[in-house]
Amino acid sequence: MGMLSAFANPHRFLALSHWLAPLFYVVGAALIAWGLWQGLWVVPKDDYQGGDIMRVMFIHVPAAWLAMASYSAMAAASFIWFIWRHELADIAAKAIAPLGAVWTVLCLATGSIWGKPTWGTWWQWDDARMMSVLFLFFLFLGYMALRAAMDSRQKAARAGAILAMVGALNVPLIKFSVDMFTSLHQDASVITADGPKMAAVYLWPLMMSGLGHSLLFGALVMTLMRAEIWTRRAARQRARLLAGA
Amino acid sequence: MMELLPDLGKNAAYIWACYGLGAFLIGGAVVGTVLKARAAKAALKRMQASDEDAA
Amino acid sequence: MSPKPILSAFRQALGESWAGGAGALLPLGFFAGAAVLVPLGIGTEPGMLRAVGPGILWVSLALSSLVTLERIFQADVEDGALDLWLQAGAPVSAIAAAKTFAHWLTAGLPLALMSPVLALMFQAQAGIGLLTGALIYGIGGLAFFFWGGVGAALSATVRRGGLLIALIALPLYVPTAIFGSMAMRGAALGDTAPLLLAASTLFALAAAPFAMAAALRLAAD
């Protein structure tokens, strides 16, 4: 609870993120670079996984991980805000949404590019993972559009929190229904890049890339949160100024 | 310069497209985020300066 | 808590949606129009129409629900009815559920009842399947209306919120659309698809009223 209360206080958050965000940027970028070097130069191609094209996984799989993790984080922050009304939780949810959407698009686009030489098509309706991530993207879009349509910060926070929680409640059902939908078409030959039989030579660069993307994502969220805190302070200052004048 | 790049076989174009797109999107997110934070901080500074002027 | 505010909201919603849209004629016309556009767009080959027909009807049903839901809560915000419920301590989730149900009765159920006619136009076999089809469209439509109601409640204070409702609700429509069209095709899973559809509709009935109530409390502030 001590750590959590540090995050509940904007002042302490600013002090913490002042050094934590740069650290995450540097370590995240270094890990991504290492994973990139391993993935493109060092690891051997895996003919079982379609040859060189599997090298795409060192960006695709971290993007898929972040697409899911970021929506979960946004829903968790929304829940915390809705129950305890910690302003910082709303600031976090607001910051996560556009960044989560970026990584979700990256996941879809790299999956699509990977699909072309592998399946012979840019878009595979029968692939449950692609469909689930696509609907995740729409959930992010709806969240951002709803917040943008509200006329006050407080309303944006409340509406956003309700929608994020409704979305999170529906994600398992969406996932289940999409799995069921795609299992009707067994002829689709889906490669299992994230299957259990992955050799250690791929696993390490993959995990390090995943960690690097996560740290970079965390750094970006912190930076956006700092921007939002400053913006809200400036707005309060302006209101004070107008009230005093 | 060419020998610095790995030989990625017949699907090299697809692989480079993925990483190029990743660099573009993530780079864009970093630049946009940092610029937004800078603008927010500058706006707060301006506001605080005008507050002190008023006081 | 007395059921009076719930009943009166239900009656009022029935009246509004019945009178405000020329009875069930407007949603029916929209539903039929949306469905009939498709053969004009993709061609009239009977085998193809038979294959895509159930799917077209699902999409038309989803679109019709979105169109009819746009103003379901806006009037309550504007004329102060919402404030009155809140001041009286009325159960907002039950009122929201009653209103949404009333809209389904006047704008969703008629579409399900009309679905056999459209299905025949899409070259479906005449028979008992048309009636079970109507039942399936009715159950699925109920889920559409309740999730769409969440979108409508969230955007009740937004002017021209129609597109916002659509963007919010469409991902929530996915399970119903999938289970619904699987149930219609009677494919692979046999009898489980209608059960899954019913279960996901029950889930919508259980969860959506609370989200609508939370959103309406926000709209009243």
UniProtKB/TrEMBL annotation, chain A:
It is found in: Cell inner membrane; Membrane. It comes from Hyphomonas chukchiensis. Residues 8-184 form the Cytochrome c assembly protein domain. GO terms for molecular function: heme binding; heme transmembrane transporter activity. One of its GO terms (biological process) is cytochrome complex assembly. GO terms for cellular component: plasma membrane. It holds the Pfam family Cytochrom_C_asm. Keywords: Cell inner membrane, Cell membrane, Cytochrome c-type biogenesis, Membrane, Transmembrane, Transmembrane helix, Transport. The chain crosses the membrane at residues 12-37, 57-84, 96-115, 130-149, 161-182, 202-224. It is a multi-pass membrane protein. Its main location: membrane. This is Heme exporter protein C. The keyword Plastid does not apply. InterPro entries: Cyt_c_assembly, Cyt_c_biogenesis_CcmC, Cyt_c_biogenesis_CcsA/CcmC. Belongs to the CcmC/CycZ/HelC family. Required for the export of heme to the periplasm for the biogenesis of c-type cytochromes. The gene is ccmC.
UniProtKB/TrEMBL annotation, chain C:
InterPro entries: Cyt_c_biogenesis_CcmB (IPR003544), Cyt_c_CcmB_bac (IPR026031). Pfam families: CcmB. NCBIfam families: ccmB (TIGR01190). One of its GO terms (molecular function) is heme transmembrane transporter activity. Belongs to the CcmB/CycW/HelB family. Required for the export of heme to the periplasm for the biogenesis of c-type cytochromes. Keywords: Cell inner membrane, Cell membrane, Cytochrome c-type biogenesis, Membrane, Transmembrane, Transmembrane helix, Transport. GO terms for biological process: cytochrome c biosynthetic process; cytochrome complex assembly. Its main location: membrane. It is found in: Cell inner membrane. This is Heme exporter protein B. It comes from Hyphomonas chukchiensis. The keyword 4Fe-4S does not apply. The chain crosses the membrane at residues 21-42, 48-69, 104-122, 134-156, 162-183, 195-220. It is a multi-pass membrane protein. GO terms for cellular component: plasma membrane. The lineage of its organism: Bacteria, Pseudomonadati, Pseudomonadota, Alphaproteobacteria, Hyphomonadales.
